[in-house]
Design a protein that fits this description.
Among the domains are: about 50 residues, Irregular (Ribosomal protein L3, domain 3); about 55 residues. It contains 5 helices and 12 strands. The mean pLDDT is about 85.
């Protein structure tokens, strides 16, 4: 199994060369450092522990500092174990986004947004009662059950805290894995708010065939194009002003030379007047 930790940046859309539009979620993945390697002989199972995002040393305890020193890195804010990881890793190795390829099917785990305390209509999508004609039942949870137990049965849908739960979206596709800029584009939406931690791993129930898609890469944006046009226009105007100035100077010099030649000709024709 392969896996990496990252932050959810937000959603956007990309176009394939076939003309299809794909909604994607951008996940920024800094380099994941292998903080610990667990083996069957020592720990009873095979796993690696990944750490991501730096943590201030004055907020780390001695155990975290010692583990970071062994890995030759700084203390990490988030840690996650990956059982039965593919390949062999040593403490201090770094995992980047190129661990995944375009077309890979993955599961993404995140923490859902918090909604606070909510009623049964928003929390469980229940229906409300009549809003008029003397009805006193509007948005309440309704009957709590039979009289015999004389208590609320476990699992009863009641108002309470909503959100902040670990949610996994299965069988999403990797659209792009950019190693240079350190981000992954995942098809569809993933749980969590912006800048929240997400965990991307190999899909467990994958039944889809690998079908990598070629997306259109834009080398420049509209803003860059407009700025280039402005720069070209300014350079052209500057060159035109320089040319006009040089032509004006040349014209004045030619006029002055012609005037001097005419004066000399008049002097030669009428030497008495010059005397």
């Amino acid at each position: 199994m392969k896996g990496i930790l990252g932050r959810k940046v937000g959603m956007t859309q990309v176009f394939t060369k076939d003309g299809k539009l794909i909604p994607v979620t951008v996940v920024a993945c800094d380099e994941n450092v292998v903080m610990q390697v667990k083996t069957v002989e020592k720990d009873g199972y095979n796993a690696i522990q990944l750490g991501v995002f730096e943590k201030k040393q004055n907020r780390a305890n001695k155990a975290e500092l010692g583990r970071a020193q062994k890995a030759n890195t700084t203390p990490k804010r988030f840690l996650k174990e990956i059982k039965d990881a593919e390949g062999t890793y040593n403490v201090g190795d770094k995992i980047l986004v190129d661990i995944f390829e375009v077309g890979d099917i993955v599961d993404v785990t995140g923490t859902s947004k918090g909604k606070g305390t909510q009623g049964v209509i928003k929390r469980f999508n229940q229906s409300r009662g009549p809003m008029g004609h003397g009805s006193h039942y509007h948005r309440k949870p309704g009957s709590l059950g039979t009289m015999l137990p004389k208590r609320v049965l476990k699992g009863k849908k009641l108002p309470g805290h909503m959100g902040v739960e670990t949610v996994t979206i299965q069988n999403l596709e990797i659209i792009e894995a950019n190693k240079e800029e350190g981000y992954i584009l995942v098809s569809g939406n993933i749980p969590g708010a912006k800048n929240s931690l997400v965990y991307i791993r190999t899909a467990v129930k994958n039944s889809r065939k690998k079908d990598p898609k070629e997306i259109i890469a834009y080398e420049e944006t509209v803003v860059d194009a407009v700025e280039e046009v402005k720069d070209v226009e300014t350079t052209e105007t500057v060159e035109e002003t320089k040319e006009t100035e040089t032509t004006e100077v040349e014209n004045t010099e030619e006029v002055a030379e012609e005037a001097v030649e005419q004066e000399e000709e008049t002097k030669e024709e009428n030497p008495e007047e010059s005397n």
